[in-house]
Design goal:
InterPro entries: RmlC-like_jellyroll, RmlC_Cupin_sf. The chain is mainly β. 5% of the residues lie in helices and 49% in strands. The protein is built from one helix and ten strands; from the N terminus they run E-E-E-E-E-E-E-E-E-E-H. The strands form two sheets. The protein has a six-stranded antiparallel sheet, with no helix packed on it. It has a four-stranded antiparallel sheet with strand order 4-9-6-7, with no helix packed on it.
Length: 127
């Protein structure tokens, strides 16, 4: 892609899930971004991803993240500005508060190559 593209909410795939989550999915060839709004006192199902790397950025409210690891269940609270890297853990996202919470999800399928150097040095400045 060599041109700028701008997407509006109406360009997304909108889904209202039975678990209290409303999602706008923006799906591209090599990655996906979706915006989630989770209702008060609701939770997503326990789930995992086999191939997808999923990173969440909390944009408003407070989320409770629970995950299973080495026979235990762990819990942390995440608020606006925090980043959650899910990996391939079995996890769930909950909103235990009385207010809506929102978060962005970035999904990609990693290939195992370290691209940090490219990411850090890819910007070209024009006079």
């Amino acid at each position: 892609m060599d041109k700028l593209e701008l997407y509006r909410p109406e360009d997304s795939i909108y889904v209202e899930k039975g678990n209290g989550t409303r999602v706008n999915y923006f799906i591209f060839d090599e990655f996906e971004i979706h915006e989630n709004v989770i209702s008060p006192k609701s939770a997503q199902e326990w789930h995992m991803h086999r191939a997808i790397e999923e990173v969440l950025v909390v944009t408003s409210g407070e989320l409770t993240v629970r995950w299973k690891e080495e026979g235990g269940i762990y819990r942390e609270t995440a608020s606006k500005g925090m980043v959650i890297r899910v990996g391939n853990s079995v996890h769930t996202i909950e909103n235990r508060t009385n207010e809506e919470a929102a978060f962005l999800v970035f999904r990609m399928v990693p290939d195992g190559k370290d691209k940090r150097n490219v990411i850090k040095h890819d910007k070209v400045i024009f006079p």
